[in-house]
Design brief:
single chain; 119 residues; mainly alpha; 2 domains; two-stranded antiparallel sheet; 3 helices; rod-shaped
Amino acid sequence: MGGLPDGWRVESGRDPEAALADLKRRFRRVSRAYARAQAIRRAKPMLRLALWGVAAGFVLYLTLATLSPWPPTTTLRHVAAASNCGVARMLDVAPARRGEPGYWRRLDRDGDGIACERI
């Protein structure tokens, strides 16, 4: 065996094609595990952000449910209607009388206690 470097030997009965197929299979398994680990590592910041968003939403919901005289969805519509009368009409809280959801003093142009009334 003069042509092979020291430490190399030819094994009888070993199929080089089967060895190559086994090597490819092991490489694919390691590559999939690495790709899965990378995907998890990339997803962690987004998951953390989503969890903070859910927690903030829950705190907001509890705050609205305990401090507002209206149900939370009505309170959210009231807060969203503060921007302008078009939004208030879209959310179906206009026209609104003083004390009702959707009434904002700055949206009451003539000061008669009815906000976003059609003229």
